[in-house]
Amino acid sequence: MNATILPEKENHYPVLLNEIISIITPQYGGTFIDCTFGQGGYTKKILEYPKTKVIALDRDPESLKISSGLIEKFNKRFFFKNKKFSQLDELELNNKNINSIIFDLGFSYTQIKDKNKGLSFNSYGDLNMKMGLNEFSAKDVINKLDKSDLEKIFKFFGDEKDSKKIASSIVKNRKKNKIDTQGLVKIIEISKKKRNHKIHVATKIFQSLRIFVNKEISELIYGLINATKILKPGGKIVVVTFHSLEDKIVKFFFKSLSEKKSISRYMPEVKEEDNLFQLGNKKPILPSNSELKMNPPSRSAKLRYVIKEKDIFNFEKEILKKFNFLIEIENLSKKL
Ligand SMILES: C[S@@+](CC[C@H](N)C(=O)[O-])C[C@H]1O[C@@H](n2cnc3c(N)ncnc32)[C@H](O)[C@@H]1O
């Protein structure tokens, strides 16, 4: 499970903050987009540099409280929108002079502690998992979707080996009563043959439901596509991921658009030298030992970044084709 905060001390630790600051270099000024404002960890640090402006987004309306304090303090340098980052192209930007766009994916410690959101398998009451601006909840998914659809969600979004058995058991149990959070945990505990003692038995199913309810796959893909479109040449896209599915998407997006062969294969009209990105790092940047000590949940964080070389249009075809099967699974929600 990801979170950017140290639970024991309830302090806020934005993951890989120093590494991000050294990549985006706010000391030279400019406009930055923080796509996942959360507790404002990155935004506050960037605003410490006087010649900067930050446009921040977060889908969770709770972020409005923290952002309103910053609006008062930094008016004209800080702007907040309660929007999803897939809608980056809808920002009314005066000019396309964006220096860097940053994504710190997943959920925050505050969100997982929020009982109403029901993101944790330790929650009681109805299933929910909505981070904000959602169309349906985990309660709808578990109590309404077909067995085969549930199985696909668990398998492809959670990499859960016992997907079939768990989906069957859910469908059998919901005939008697609606399934709530602890009801689901119990079904998973009974259904699972082998246990991995390093993680909670319900971790993968809860992750898959969170991804599905929040449409995290299409959010990430369209977030990256639209970030690329609004970024100025020379600008950077920086992404921190917390699980392998996210990292796979980011890695493919960055790599395939930085390599000559992939561009020329799918877009023969573009000349070989016309790469969209230059890769910032070949291997992901990981938290240092001292960060891991201070903030153990940062252990699954991976940072990747690219520098945009030039404006190229219609680059998204290959990306959408590659991940279409995952977007199709998200589209099962149309049945709800
Ligand atoms: C890991 S936290 C970010 C923490 C932040 N970097 C900080 O230092 O406080 C992730 C945040 O991203 C938000 N979020 C997740 N998916 C989003 C999306 N598609 N669009 C906008 N915000 C999103 C969540 O609501 C959460 O507040």
Q: What does this entry show, briefly?
A:
With 336 residues, the chain is α/β, with parallel strands linked by helices. It has helices at residues 17-24, 41-47, 63-73, 109-113, 138-144, 147-158, 163-173, 181-191, 203-213, 216-230, 244-256, 260-266, 289-294, 317-322, 324-330, and strands spanning 5-6, 11-12, 30-34, 52-57, 78-81, 98-104, 231-241, 277-279, 302-308. The chain folds into two domains: 5-110 and 216-312, Rossmann fold; 135-213, Putative methyltransferase TM0872, insert domain (DNA polymerase, domain 1).
Secondary structure elements and pairings:
Blueprint: E1 5-6, E2 11-12, H1 17-24, E3 30-34, H2 41-47, E4 52-57, H3 63-73, E5 78-81, E6 98-104, H4 109-113, H5 138-144, H6 147-158, H7 163-173, H8 181-191, H9 203-213, H10 216-230, E7 231-241, H11 244-256, H12 260-266, E8 277-279, H13 289-294, E9 302-308, H14 317-322, H15 324-330
Parallel strand pairs: 3-4, 3-6, 4-5, 6-7
Antiparallel strand pairs: 1-2, 7-9, 8-9
Helix pairs in contact: 6-7, 6-9, 7-8, 10-11
Bound molecules: S-adenosylmethionine.
S-adenosylmethionine (SAM) binds next to α2.
CATH architecture of the largest domain: 3-Layer(aba) Sandwich
Distance between the termini: 27 Å
Would you list the SSEs in sequence order as H and E?
A: EEHEHEHEEHHHHHHHEHHEHEHH
> Any low-confidence stretches, pLDDT <50, length ≥5?
1-9
Structural classification: alpha/beta
Tally of extended strands?
A: 9
Rg, nearest Å: 20 Å
CATH classification class of the largest domain: Alpha Beta
Q: How many independent structural domains?
A: 2
Helix content: 40-55%
Major beta sheet, specifics?
Answer: 7 strands, mixed
**What ligand species are in this complex?**
S-adenosylmethionine
Total helices: the number is 15
Outline, from the CA principal axes? globular
CATH superfamily of the largest domain: Vaccinia Virus protein VP39
Average the pLDDT over all residues and give the rounded result.
92
